[in-house]
Write a structure and sequence with these properties.
alpha/beta, Rossmann fold, 8 helices, globular, binds NADP nicotinamide-adenine-dinucleotide phosphate, SDR_fam, EC 1.1.1.30
């Protein structure tokens, strides 16, 4: 029996992702999933740039990650010019939600969601690709959603933006392939973050039920696993996509959804 293998590390050894020498940038890194991604990438050895609307939360995550904070409004195209271009791993995570029927949906809110969740990722990819192409390696990871693959009523702007992000990711995968750059979406179900806590409170009020019931009866109705996902579980998928054995995975969408999509 062989106890010692020669050659490159096998999958078990490589599962410990080593990102020493890599530079990552995480948008929306001040909170929730983005914060968990920034910490996971830093723990794997990457230098992490944390971008967020809120200066305090960006700073708090950057301090915890030993990284660099950037307070930037991603809806402000000109402000993106202040961000670094020499990024090896780009995690497009920043997002927001607005829930209303189409006939009452404020067009300016619809436009804002497209700006933050489609236009900003496009501009960030555009900024980072020349560096990635020049070195022949790069990882683009986009925090999409199960709403990038399926629709729910009253979330027209969010569902439109996430479907747009899915298309953008696939095109980046095709263009990036000859240059060693992969592009993938991670598609969470409901994650325990401030974004979802806001929705739980709003739904509890709208339905006149308590927040526990919103989670069990409304949000997780389709989910096979009846609990919210933790941000660290999403970050683990992001980290895996940056590891040594995922170079052939590109243009795909990875549900982390407790079986929501299977139902
Ligand atoms: P979160 O805790 O609210 O984090 C989102 C972050 O994005 C916040 O720090 C927010 O800053 C930032 N952000 C929003 N607008 C911005 C702007 N214009 N410029 C810069 N930063 C901005 O939410 P989350 O749940 O972690 O969501 C992260 C991503 O995961 C989103 O794209 C979301 O659609 C996606 N997602 C979430 C879930 C879920 O169940 N939570 C499920 C599927 C997908 P402020 O706090 O200062 O506004």
């Amino acid at each position: 029996m062989t106890s010692q293998l020669s050659g490159p590390p096998g999958p078990a050894a490589a599962a410990a992702v080593n990102l020493s020498g890599r530079t990552a940038l995480v948008t929306g890194g001040g909170s929730g999933i983005g914060r968990a991604c920034a910490l996971a990438l830093a723990e794997a050895g990457a230098q992490v740039h944390v971008v967020d609307l809120d200066a305090e939360s960006a700073k708090e995550t950057a301090t915890a990650a030993g990284g660099i904070a950037h307070a930037v409004n991603l809806a402000d195209t000109a402000a993106l010019g202040a961000l670094p271009r020499e990024i090896d791993i780009l995690v497009n995570c920043a997002g927001l939600q607005h829930v209303a029927p189409i006939e009452e949906f404020p067009p300016e809110r619809f436009a804002l969601l497209q700006q933050v969740m489609v236009m900003a990722p496009f501009l960030m990819i555009q900024r980072c690709l020349p560096h990635m192409y020049a070195q022949g390696w790069g990882r683009l990871v986009h925090i999409s959603s199960m709403h990038g693959l399926r629709a729910s009523a009253y979330k027209s702007a969010y569902v439109t933006a996430k479907h747009g992000l899915e298309g953008l990711s696939k095109v980046a995968a095709l263009e990036g392939a000859p240059h060693g750059v992969t592009s993938n979406c991670v598609n969470p179900g409901y994650v325990r973050t401030p974004l979802v806590e806001g929705q739980i409170a709003a739904q509890a009020e709208a339905h006149g039920i308590d927040p526990e019931a919103v989670v069990g009866e409304v949000l997780l109705e389709r989910s096979a696993i009846k609990r919210l996902i933790e941000p660290e579980e999403v970050a683990a998928a992001v980290l895996w996509l940056c590891g040594p054995h995922t170079g052939f995975i590109t243009g795909t969408s990875l549900p982390v959804d407790g079986g929501w999509g299977a139902n």
